[in-house]
What does this fold into?
Amino acid sequence: MQAAENQDYVSVSEYLVAEAASAVRHEYPGGLVSAMAGETRDHNQMVGNLLYAIRRQVKGTADQVPMIDIRVNLQFLNGECFYSPDLVVTGDQRDSEERFIRYPKLIVEVLSESTERVDRHEKFFAYTQIETLEEYVLVAPSGREVMPHTAAGARPSGRSSVHLQPERWGTPARWVSSWPLRSERRAPTAVTVFRRADNWKGETVTDTKGSVALKSLRLEVPLAEIYEGV
It folds into this structure.
């Protein structure tokens, strides 16, 4: 989440020195510095679930190392960028730098309302320029929505009430009127994988009984496992 930006140009060396002493992570898109705000509990849960699932399946495989809290360095003709994906997997021996990696094979971003546009557009363009990247994964957030319900064949009783219906995926939150009897159900879940082999065309999995194929790692992760505890 980009919380604030310093519009003064900062060199790469200045950024890395300042970042080493900072308690707050920052991204560095082409000379500008953007602070990263704290993530939500659900966000951290999904990242942790993915990290655990991948580590469990690649355990003992030295050429596939999943990591969090590490920067990805992108070098272009007109400058450099440093992004902080939610999860990265690298297996390239050239990635010996402790502070960042340059040769990821898989990058994962967990979307939020404030970062979705950047993750789907700016970062998509930047990440897909990395020659070693095979897959870019976007994980949609999951939430609860409150729905009115009544027993079969019964009429609603009591006075109606007004409550806030949390946003569904792709639609804004709104105030709605309903009867007091309500039930909760999960909002839609979705994981989209963009692959170089498919010319970066996205494949989306929404079936909670299905699995997400991470072909770059030769493994699958059940969708239910990604959203477990959320």
Q: What stands out?
A: Residues 1-6, 144-186 have pLDDT under 50 and may be disordered. The first helix runs from residue 12 to 20. The longest strand covers residues 104-110.
